[in-house]
Amino acid sequence: MALVALGIFSGEAVAQTASLPQRHIIQIEAFAFQPTQINVSPGDTIVWVNNDIVPHFLNVAEGQWQSPVLEEGQSWELMVDQAGRYDYICVFHPTMTGAFATK
Amino acid sequence: MNTFTKSFTIFTLASAVLVGCMTANGPATAKQGMGNTAMTKVSMMKQESTTPMLNDLEIAHIAYTAGAIDIRYAHLALALSEDPEVRNFAELMIRDHTAVNNKALALVKKLQITPQDNAMSQQLSQQARQIREELSQLRGKDLAKRYAANELRYHQTVNNVVENTFIPNAQNPELKALLTAALQTFKIHEGHAEKMNEKVM
């Protein structure tokens, strides 16, 4: 109902609501990223949460961004506003890979 | 009664393999590993009647000891080897096994219990001393190969015991959960060790 009302009385308000930045949570668990791949919008924030008992260390887009060392229970946030596809790995455990696309 | 104190009979196969593989000499390629496993099955049969009863406290002690041993191997490798594969792996071992052992210490503190030293822990430590002595005499490629081979064998062996003996028989649910999480870590290490072996050959 609220969205309908906004649509009727303020088209601009609807557009602004739709473009609100989102937070996307990626769980690090059992040496894997869940979900492994996601699509996000420019300005969204991605949050990686380490649920493993050992530390992880993320390298995004071949060094364009790097997390701090994430101990168990720690998280890292990254806001990306440039369109593109970004692959990332855990530097400590390179078999752990993931990707996100911004468009 | 705290389930942590309940005792159980450890599977003879696992304990014999654990001890038997630690005594293996020489590089541990996959092929050689199979041969040694066959030999330890024989020794297992001989030891069947003398396998000790182990409780959770002893399992915790063995698991912690196994991690500490691998950390010491890693420190030795970092001190003696310039091989980047060896050094990366050694740093991973120090980082991950320290994290796992710190979790174990936290659990021990929480439960207010004291892990019990036992014959298997002592045997592990004794064999580790011999392997460290052997490693310390090597340099260059020989050291890299021997370290890599030992790490692969060690993780194969420990993983087998943790998966097939410790986890099924651990009585305390928190210990069981920690062993399960640790096994995930150690299996990743085993995969890394396989790759390291391929690269240092």
Keywords summarizing the entry:
heterodimer; A: 103 residues; alpha+beta; Immunoglobulin-like; five-stranded mixed β-sheet; four-stranded mixed β-sheet; 2 helices; 9 strands; disordered N terminus; B: 201 residues; mainly alpha; Ferritin; two-stranded antiparallel ribbon; 2 strands; elongated
What this model shows, in words?
The complex is a heterodimer of chains A (103) and B (201). Chain A is α+β, with helices and mostly antiparallel strands. Chain A has one domain: Immunoglobulin-like (Sandwich), CATH 2.60.40.420. Chain A contains 2 helices and 9 strands. Chain A has a 5-stranded mixed beta sheet with strand order 3-9-8-5-6, with no helix packed on it. In chain A, strands 2-1-4-7 form a 4-stranded mixed beta sheet, with no helix packed on it. In chain A, a hairpin with a 2-residue loop joins strand 1 and strand 2 (32-34). In chain A, helix 1 packs across helix 2. The longest helix of chain A is centred in the first third of the chain and has 8 residues, at 2-9. With 201 residues, chain B is mostly helical. Chain B has a single domain, classed as Ferritin, core subunit, four-helix bundle (Ferritin), CATH 1.20.1260. Chain B contains 7 helices and 2 strands; from the N terminus they run E-H-H-E-H-H-H-H-H. Chain B has helices at 12-22, 30-47, 56-80, 84-111, 119-136, 140-169, 173-200; strands spanning 7-9, 53-55. In chain B, helix 1 runs antiparallel to helix 6. The longest helix of chain B is centred in the last third of the chain and has 30 residues, at 140-169. Chain B is elongated, with a radius of gyration of 16 Å.
